[in-house]
Structure formats: structure tokens, C-alpha cells
Amino acid sequence: MVTFGIPEAISAMKIVLDIAVKLKNESKELALVEKEIRKVKNDLSDIEARMKNPKSPLGQSDAGMKARIEEDSKDIKEGCAQVKKILEERARMHSLELGSKTWFVMYRVPELKVIIAGFTATTTSIDKKIQLLLADAAERAAASHVKAQKKAEEQAAASAKAQKKAEAQAKKLEEKMDKVLEQQKKDRKMKEEQEKNTKKLLELLEKQGRKGVQDIALGKGDGKKAADLVDELISGGMKRKDAKAGVQSTMSAVRSESQSQKQTIKRAATDEAKKGALAAKPTAAKTQVTAKAGQEPEVKKNNIWILCVDSRNGPRSIMAQTYLEFVRSWTINTQKRWIFQRVHSIGVLTSSPFTKSTIESEKLQVNEANVPVSGLAIEAIAGEESHFQTKDWPNEKGTILKRVREHKSQGLTRTHFERYEHIICFSKKTFDLLEKMKAPLEAGEKKIKVVSKIHLLQKCFWLKDDNDEKKEDILKMAGKLKVALKEFLKVEFKWERPTIGIASGEWRTLEILVDEEVAKRMKKDKGVLMNKILEKKGCTVHVAVDVADKCLVSISGPKGKLAEAQKMALA
Q: What Cα–Cα distance (Å) separates residue 43 from each residue in 33, 124, 129?
């Protein structure tokens, strides 16, 4: 039999009191649980957000560490779910159900405390992991900072080295420029001195007169000697070596010109003797006009026509035409020899009815006609001012350049083969095409007199096909053309290079373009006009027909008589 005495009663009272206290403190206990749950949830949400951020240490951590943190987080989420379930159970209990409340306080509240204690342990574990990650991130950041600082120092050193090198190069360039400027200064000074010397020499020679200079050069008479001219130049301030060189050069040129004239006269006399009479009919290629007694020496004339051809009548053919015109004026002024009658330029692949009909089967691209002249080409062939310098009237160089600038590209016609004795081209491709176009004209049913001889200037091809748009390439081509054209004249015309400048001879040449009406009159009886002017003024006239709708008239003779000769020609 169980006895229930005072001790047992006291124990029971203690239990009742403990339960009563717990029931009384239940709301506080539950409030603490809910507070802890909110705190744990917030911490967990913050950790998850940081793990998703790729810039945070948690986001940059390795997969193993992330997995361990996610596992701890999972435990906390399960605990939170269990707490939520217990709290929902308490919410369903009626406030008067003392037994249920007592059971909840006795068993569920301690269970909640255990879960909360577990949260503390788990969050402590997560915190340790996070601290490790933060320490690792800090270490990596420090290492990265050291590396970046080292790289910056290396870049600064490299930059300083590059700057030092640049400064050295700039200094070297500056020294080089100083040398260039100094050399240019010396060259200008030398050029100025040469110009002064040339002016003094010309003034002295003009003072002596042409006959006086010839007598000195050929050692005729008892007058002045070359040494006397040298002494006069020295007394005028010229250095001895410059004076001596200038006089010797001039004497040599005069002797050469005199010898050339003698050879020309001798050849002419031989030719006339072979012909048997002075009035013999001239050939198609050459005519000889003999001056009357008391007039200037005879002028050897050539009625040859020259055609310069490239693919599209571009810079190359224009420069060739222009340079040949320079040389013609140079030669007539200094040697009294008219080496050819007319020079012109066209493009073999420039549009024309003849071109289209003859190369239709070739499937070649035909260029448009009437394209203006390249300014770079004119500038290149004109060269410096001292090149064919003729500033004073009649300014042969300026007149030729002005006329050529107005040229527009033209195509080939069959009459070119009939009229031009020489056709000059600059590439094998153009040469073959010209020969192919010429062949049917010689062998066709309607035979024509084909007089053209086609010449290929071997070294005047573009490095690239028609690469004629760059100034550097055009300047190089101008130099090649000058050499090749002078060689062509030497071979085909027995041309000899004058020893003095274009404006330094006894004669000058005036070119004028007359309109169609005047041209018709000149074409009609140009021989009479030529002889009339030659008789009265000691000049010679050359008429080049078919220059567009105009006529090119070239009057050569003593400078002082050109103006009157011009009036007579136009009258």
C-alpha cells in the first residue's frame, strides 16, 4: 500500500509550484524563442545573399566550403520548420485546457530550447567558416596588392626607360635637323653665290659681244684672252677658282657650238651636192631652208611628227609631250635647229570610235575621253624654276606649260598612223596593242600609207599598272622619261645636247595659238609667209596644224625682232 505522507506532499507541492512558475513564464519563453528564430532567419538570409554575390568572399569561396555552409544552413532551416510546427501546435490549444498547457510547458518548451541551442552551435560553426574565408580573402587581397604594386613599379620603370629613349631620339633628331638646316643654309649660300657669279659672267660676256666671245674662245685676233676675262671677274669680287671655271666652261661651250655649226654646214653642203641643186624637192621627213647673203646661218628644219601614247593619256604621255616641247625650243634657241614639227599625246585605251571598233574582241576596259591633265604631272616635268628657266619674254617654258595644262585626254584614230612618223609608248602591253591596231591598216582592202614607226621606251613602265596617282611615283617617272627621250632624240634625230641654257642662245622662240580663220590662211600659203619673215627679220616660222580647232605658230629668231615678226605673221 502506497502511503502519502508529509514529505511526499511537500514534493508534490514543489512540482505544482514549478509547473505554475513555468506556466506563468511560458509567454516570455515563447517570445524569446520567436526572437531567436527571427535572428537566425535574418542571419541565414544574409549569408545566402553573400554567397550569391560573386564579388564577396563567400561568393568567391571554393565549392567544398560553400557545400559545408549550405549543409549547416539546411540544418537551421529544418530546425526553424520544427519550431514553427511546435508553435502552431501551441496556438491550437485552448486557454482553459490546463492539462495540455502543462504538457506543452513540461515537454515542448524544453524541446524548443534544445533546438535554439542547436541553432547557436550551428551558427557558431558557420561564423568560423566565414572567418576563415575572410582571412583567406584578406590574404589574397594583400598578395594581389603586392603584385599590383610590383607591376606598377615595373611599368613606371619601363615608362621612365621609354621616356629616356625618346628624349635621346629627340635629341638625336634635333641634332640631325640642325645639320640639315646648316647644310641647307650652306647650299643656299652657295646657290646665291653661283647665281651672282653667273650674273657677273653673263654681264661680262654681253659686254664683249657674241663675236668677241667667239674670237676669245677660238683664239682669233690680238684682242682679249680668256685670262683677261678671269682677271676682270676677280676684280669684280669673284673667287679665282670660280672665275676660272666659269670662263673655261663658257669657252668650251662656244667652241663646241662653233664646231657643231661647222659640221651642220658641212653636212648640208654635202646633202645639197648629192641632190644636185638647191631647189631640189624636199623629202617628206626633212627640208632645208637656206638664208640669203647677209642673214643668219641656215636653219635646219624637220617636218617629223611625234605621238606619245600610254593607256589613258595620263601623266606619263603628257610629261613626255611636254618635255619634248621643252627640248625643241631649247635646241632651236641654241643650235638654230628645228628637230621636229609637232608632238602630241593620246591614250590607246581612251574612248574613240576607232579604238572601240579595233579592240572590241579584246574585252579591254576603255577609259573616258576629255579628262583634264594631272596637275602633279605638270609640276613634276616642269621641275624647279632653274630647269629650262625662261622667266623673261617670250617665256618659252611658261607658254608651253600653259598650253599643255589645257590638254584633255584623247583617243587614237587611224589618221594618227598615217600622219605621225614616230609613235612612242612606254609598256610592252601598249606596244603590242598598237602593233595589232596598225597591222590591219597596212593589209586591209582599203590600203593606206602607214608611216608610223612604233618605239617602246623600255625603262618607263609603272611598277604597278598605271600607278600614276602618287607624287613620288610621278617624280620618278619624270626622271626616267627625260633620260629615255633624250636617248630617243639622239638615235632618231642625231640630236646633240646644247651646252648652254634655253634662254642663253642668240635666238628665242615665241609660240602663239591663232584661231581657225587665221589658221586657214596660214595653212593655205605658209611657205610664202615663212620666207617673207625669214628675209626681212632674220626669223623662222613653223606652223603646226590640227591643234584642236586652232593652229600653233612658233616664231624663232633674235629676241629683239620677235615682236615685229609676230605682227607680220598675224597680219
A: 15, 12, 14
- Cβ count near 544 (within 10 Å): 19
C-alpha cell at 219: 683664239
Beta strands 305-310 and 422-425, pairing class: parallel
Which of 260, 281, 284, 267 lies closest to 334 in space, CA to CA? 260
- All three cell numbers of 494, joined, read 642625231
* Stretch 387-407: mean pLDDT: 91
Within 13 Å and on the Cβ side, how many CA atoms surround 411? Answer: 18
3-state secondary structure at position 503: coil
Containing 545, the helix (H) or strand (E) segment is strand 540-547
Say if CB 260 and CB 496 are below 8 A apart.
yes
Residue type present at position 443: A
Helix/strand/coil for 333 = helix
Residue 273, C-alpha cell as written in the block: 651636192
Residue 421: the pLDDT is 94
Tell me which range, 49-53, 184-188, 194-198, is most confidently predicted by mean pLDDT.
184-188
* Residues 115-140: tens digit of each pLDDT: 777 777 777 777 776 777 777 777 77
pLDDT in tens, 6-44: 555 555 454 455 455 455 555 666 677 777 777 777 777
Cell numbers that stand for 512 in this block: 602663239
Query: Can you tell me which residue has the cell 509550484?
Result: 17
Contacts of 397 (CB under 8 A, 6+ apart): 326, 329, 382, 388, 389, 390, 502
d(CA 103, CA 19): 10
